[in-house]
Amino acid sequence: MSTFGTLFRVTTYGESHCASVGAIIDGCPPGLPLVAQDVQTQLSRRRPGQSNLTTPRDEKDLVHLQSGIEHGVTLGTPIGLLVRNEDQRPKDYSETDLYPRPSHADWTYLEKYGVKASSGGGRSSARETIGRVAAGAIAEKYLKMAYGIEIVAFVSSVGKVSLPSVASPPSQVPDDEDDVVEDALSPEFVELLRTVTREKVDAQPTRCPHAETSERMIKRILRAKDANDSIGGTVTCVIRGVPAGLGEPVFDKLEAKLGHAMLSIPATKAFEIGSGFRGTQVPGSRHNDAFVRRADGGLGTRTNWSGGVQGGISNGEDIYFRVGFKSPATITQPQETAQYDGTPGVLAARGRHDPCVVPRAVPIVEAMAALVIMDQVLIQNARKTASSLLPPITTLPPTMVKPPKAEGEGEKKQ
Amino acid sequence: MSTFGTLFRVTTYGESHCASVGAIIDGCPPGLPLVAQDVQTQLSRRRPGQSNLTTPRDEKDLVHLQSGIEHGVTLGTPIGLLVRNEDQRPKDYSETDLYPRPSHADWTYLEKYGVKASSGGGRSSARETIGRVAAGAIAEKYLKMAYGIEIVAFVSSVGKVSLPSVASPPSQVPDDEDDVVEDALSPEFVELLRTVTREKVDAQPTRCPHAETSERMIKRILRAKDANDSIGGTVTCVIRGVPAGLGEPVFDKLEAKLGHAMLSIPATKAFEIGSGFRGTQVPGSRHNDAFVRRADGGLGTRTNWSGGVQGGISNGEDIYFRVGFKSPATITQPQETAQYDGTPGVLAARGRHDPCVVPRAVPIVEAMAALVIMDQVLIQNARKTASSLLPPITTLPPTMVKPPKAEGEGEKKQ
Amino acid sequence: MSTFGTLFRVTTYGESHCASVGAIIDGCPPGLPLVAQDVQTQLSRRRPGQSNLTTPRDEKDLVHLQSGIEHGVTLGTPIGLLVRNEDQRPKDYSETDLYPRPSHADWTYLEKYGVKASSGGGRSSARETIGRVAAGAIAEKYLKMAYGIEIVAFVSSVGKVSLPSVASPPSQVPDDEDDVVEDALSPEFVELLRTVTREKVDAQPTRCPHAETSERMIKRILRAKDANDSIGGTVTCVIRGVPAGLGEPVFDKLEAKLGHAMLSIPATKAFEIGSGFRGTQVPGSRHNDAFVRRADGGLGTRTNWSGGVQGGISNGEDIYFRVGFKSPATITQPQETAQYDGTPGVLAARGRHDPCVVPRAVPIVEAMAALVIMDQVLIQNARKTASSLLPPITTLPPTMVKPPKAEGEGEKKQ
Amino acid sequence: MSTFGTLFRVTTYGESHCASVGAIIDGCPPGLPLVAQDVQTQLSRRRPGQSNLTTPRDEKDLVHLQSGIEHGVTLGTPIGLLVRNEDQRPKDYSETDLYPRPSHADWTYLEKYGVKASSGGGRSSARETIGRVAAGAIAEKYLKMAYGIEIVAFVSSVGKVSLPSVASPPSQVPDDEDDVVEDALSPEFVELLRTVTREKVDAQPTRCPHAETSERMIKRILRAKDANDSIGGTVTCVIRGVPAGLGEPVFDKLEAKLGHAMLSIPATKAFEIGSGFRGTQVPGSRHNDAFVRRADGGLGTRTNWSGGVQGGISNGEDIYFRVGFKSPATITQPQETAQYDGTPGVLAARGRHDPCVVPRAVPIVEAMAALVIMDQVLIQNARKTASSLLPPITTLPPTMVKPPKAEGEGEKKQ
Where does the record place the region Disordered (chains A, B, C, D) (predicted)? Predict the structure, then answer.
């Protein structure tokens, strides 16, 4: 439904042409400094009209905080917020309304609810993500202040134009004899994950932080635009500084929650964490992440094919994952299809639409990542605090118990 | 945590060496014929020791139904069930216990809980999936009887050995100019999805329903086994006969729930539905699934790149998705790694372990798929029944309302 | 937290002096005719300033529907709504701020969150209930249209002034020998439950539908007001027309959900259903509700000490319960108490406050009742629809199966 | 449904005549010493056959722990447990099966599910509470070890025989002029709440810790037994040592959760906390609990009419509440009633049944109380730990912020 999270929860409302879209964020830790600008920054990264690659409709998307904050500090009570829709008219009737848009939500919404918004998918509109981005910005601010966690997403491919570091495809010919051809990730990509920032991402209109690739992506997007067509792509996200121990076995493993979150974003069809699909081709002896002692004395891993998650639980290494966005369904090319009643015909949608959504999807991916991590932090804190009030365990073999010294230190640093 | 689902819920318990593993299934519709064999069949497909490709430990995994059923009929009350662990001894201490197994859950469990099972990951053991498979078998029986829904999973790749129909990789050279090279799915693969059965799947020890590919997979697995190594793979699952309208916008879209479910299975790292990652490279004009009038008068789609889900809601076409399983972490090759306390050393695990888990993962994938669909069926039924008790809508433009005729018919057939 | 319900969910936000208070209602059946006035009516019954018995602050409490509705029909998507706070200034500092108000939420909020709203309890303000009342009005409209369900609450006592029909106390002297002195409910009270309407309730400023008692209640309230004191009371609620079968064993029995809902209303301290505490004194032989054949052929009960719920499940009889509201904590009499730092002193609160909240609590009780019933209706519908798709049961003894004829009929009428 | 709790969750299964009844307890803090006897003690207090006041069926109710524990220490993973039913035969058919037992769950279960257990209410059997008691015993052990929390319930009335300390009824004649007649609680009762122990409770077969009253209760119960009748009563519970800050505004106020928990116990019809219904008659000026500085420097209250909860949040004082249990529905007196098909007749139930359930309800009330407190402790810990990682608040007026000193101290002692 429209609520996400257990202890840190966001509930959203709003269609594309109703009075406003908004959200209630429940469970925000009290005492967090928070002003509208903290939220506005990410909302502005999400809104359309930021470059000639996106739809020209320039909505201001100003957030109005309603509750849960006084004098710039959160009270621990729910934060209500909303963004007004500038275009609130229910859509005029047109001949195109006789056609459910192919691969869009028009028809399935009608099947599901028996009624649908005049604007078509309505709730499936990208405007619904405003509430997510706002909530994510709040979660992110907390995670940054309390743990130094950094979340950065970027465009890793548009169509077949891909960051060089991940472009190396799996060896082309299915090879039964030899799988030792390449690693899942190039060293350049690993370095990128460690160093990429939002500033570097936003320096390119595509939000691909590699200038040359970005140029080629721009061409690819403009080619789609000129053809009244659309093109998909992928967004990669890295979360740095996450403490070990997040993720709830067995059904709420960290990758399960991240996958759920990402696949709830409109137009997503694929998710992989760490080495992902490519990793399935690498033998265990090469895929396993060996342990090493870190500089701070704790354990780390030499490689990070796991993507920072083992057994469904974060291990303190960088978490990274990739999300696949299909090519937008709404295109202005004529399409041979059928009307709601089955009558064959040709649909020619009007208006201007994003030929490629991945640049704008970047802050949405970051927001959903923040929501997942935030919720898991709270849940794990509940457990750790509870355990810390018990007397030390003396009856178990030492290999079954975490040494008490390690418990106290580095709570924030892992 | 250990509960999955909203109206149809499974809660599981059990580690690898405790007294038993089991589950409570809550929300099963009353009046369903159910005997132990319904559950046992899938449990037996899951258990080890079925061929020389899997671990030789042959556990019987006999299910004991405890409640919720009388005279072979479900009462609507919770169904308790359990499978005894034959090997219930807490593990003996050994030098290997000083080492967290690389890419396994040993270390993260200890970080998370502060204590861990003597057997290592404990709850991360594959035995935990017994409860899921049992619950899934019950859901599946209902879905079959009430809707004729069929769920079939199969192994689609082992390492780089892939079903030919999906083997065609995306065009090798990233091509900025031309993306009209291949479709995401070959016609053979589409045909396979339509016709594959569990019988065909189980006819091969790999559970890959294509004999020739299966032979090559066997070789690949045996090669890993001989090398004391392991290899990953992918499982593809198709769900046929699902009614349109399942999936709850916005956070519980059908692909989000499926992704969550699949990524909660041990060793999974990737999920894609429909055309998935490959579909991100196909322009909208070719990727969109045009509508056509079906034989029964309703709407269907000409192609099915969407994988049966549009806008997060099932559209009545076959749902299919692919899950990536990493190469098993437990290998008996010596591995250079570190002990819990950071001391470098070499870990040489003992015992026999599955060199490849995907054949045994097949019924687990089916089970999780059944749990998702079952829960969504119940939730959508609640809505449809509620709406059906309201008077017909007369105040909306006709394009906003589903024609009443279509509502009544084909509830089960869509 | 701030979300209530499983399939029909309300999430609220807002403190007393923030920008607005509001709610998101998720899971409303699509196709329900709904306009702002449907919600406004109940909000206006809740707002202050309706008579000289309540606080003179007259806020308009106009509701603004934001989403989920087009052309006066619900779309099935979340309904966002808000009511602006007319007084949005954070409170000025005053000496009274040094004192946590006795029996108010000031101190516990500070203990819980570490910070608190400048206005004191903030979220504990009665303004928070606006979201509940709005959501309840929507639920209620559905229940009325689809099932003919009627929900009417009324004031049954103020201080010791009680409706005569329930005034008869339990026999005064604890009597070990004879408990057959009185029934729990007088015939007049049973008749009142059957016939009371909101019109009759609102005809009295106290919302006690018995004119003479209402007069005495007015005097009692005015006496409290004149003394700068306050007085508590009880609200009784009846729900007529509820179908049999609602309530989810075992933890979500219908009385458990109703109790939860009622005890979440500010200032409530007690809840009883049916004969309640008094019924504990009546032997089973007199307390049991014998079955009788109803006019429509189904089963009913001769008496209704159970309050319409048996085994946690509605039985089709009227559901009635009573809720106890303590005397309001905020009084303007000087009170000897202590400051936050423990310094003893005298608190003399200023301003005008409700000397008695029960008249205004009436629509809040109705709203929470509607939310519970609505959610349970949806959950039970999911089960019934699911069961109805299975073949008839032939293997059970006839006493274990509901006759199929009874299934179809009277879905709405029971 | 059959799951209770958010972070500390119990899920139960089992009917009266199935193979076993059991539970899965999820979210137990790791590192808690736990052996079967910890659970068995409370199970044995719950089981029948403890005195001639209860049903003579003496079941052993031995608990079998299945998982989540090694070497007597919890692992943090789910604890599965079960108790075998000694009488597992589905009931024989008898003429009484034609009759739904008045005020029992037979008919409502059949209405709800369309089928029912051969034994009648099945899941409504008191045996279902075994899982709750087991789970509660685990929660209780944690709360005792970590916080020193004590939970003691006792029988406060049987029929009209009531503890003298609470027997004083409200002034008998509804008095509009004078309500200053008595306090809600006698000093003796307050003292009892402070000092009562399980030992004192169990010293009496009735579990009423006042010997003289207990004698009269015994007579009352035996009188019911001799008459083949039954009698109800009330159980009062006190929870001592609860830290301030528990309970989640707004829908999950602590009294709302406690009320929900208690009203989910079979046969309960009423709940009140603190002064409860009686407190509604006491003016605010007398009902308010003035603050005083405690010996440890923190704030306490002079009186405790609030029952330890203000604004839905615990304030560190003793929490106490009262639960009303109706007279058991199953009696062996002949009852004029109707068969399932409406045919009038006389039902004469056979067998031996508890004439009064309140003595056995004592450990069930304690268990549900422990489950609520445990869950709220975890949730509040999550928040407090999260807030503690933020920098000190400097921008708020001092009256809005809890002094940092108070935060650190007395975490366990409040």
Answer: 390-414
Would you say A185 and A277 are in contact if contact means Cβ atoms under 8 Å apart?
no
pLDDT band at residue A168 under the 50/70/90 scheme: very low
User: Residue A249 and residue A272: Cα distance in Å, rounded?
Assistant: 19
CB D352 within 8 A of CB D56: yes
**In this structure, what token pair is assigned to residue D274?**
């603190």
Q: B321: which strand partners?
A: B237, B273
Which of C12, C95, C108, C157 best probes binding to D when mutated, by most D CB atoms within 10 angstroms?
A: C108
Which tens digits make up the pLDDT trace of B215-252?
Answer: 999 999 999 999 999 999 999 999 999 999 999 999 99
Per-chain mean pLDDT for chain D: 89
Q: How confident is the model at residue A412 (pLDDT cuts 50, 70, 90)?
A: very low
Q: What are phi and psi of C387, to 5 degrees?
A: -65, -35
Distance to chain C for A36, nearest Cα, Å? 13
Q: How high is the pLDDT of residue A59?
A: 58
Radius of gyration in angstroms for the set of CA atoms belonging to chain D, rounded to a whole number: 23
Instruction: Kindly list the strands in the beta sheet with C3-4, ordered across the sheet, starting from the edge strand earlier in the chain.
Output: C3-4, C9-13, C20-26, C79-84, C63-65
Q: Chain D: give the shortest CA distance to residue B36, in Å.
A: 13
Dist CA B284 CA A355 (whole Å): 9
Question: How far is it, in rounded angstroms, from Cα D171 to Cα D182?
Answer: 8
**Does D175 participate in catalysis according to the annotation?**
no
Cβ pairs A/B, distance under 8 A: 475
Q: Phi and psi of C321, rounded to 5°?
A: -155, 170
Q: Contact A257/A239 with Cβ under 8 angstroms?
A: no
Chain A, chain D: beta-carbon pairs less than 8 Å apart: 101
What are the structural domains, with CATH classification, of chain D? 3-172+181-397 (3.60.150.10)
Instruction: Give the CA distances from residue B347 to residues A285, B99, B332, B341, C85, in Å, rounded to whole numbers and listed in that order.
Output: 12, 7, 9, 14, 66
Nearest to D144 by CA among D198, D76, D214, D222: D198
Question: If you average pLDDT over each of A351-365, B57-71, C197-211, which comes out highest?
Answer: C197-211
Cβ D390–A29 below 8 Å, yes or no?
yes
Q: Reduce the DSSP state of residue A360 to 3 states and report it.
A: helix
Please tell me whether the peptide bond between D250 and the residue prior to it is cis, using omega within 30 degrees of 0: yes
Which two structure tokens, joined as six digits, stand for B2? 């250990």
Per-residue pLDDT, B120: 63
Q: Where are the alpha helices (DSSP H) in C161-305?
A: 164-167, 187-195, 198-202, 211-226, 254-263, 276-279, 284-287
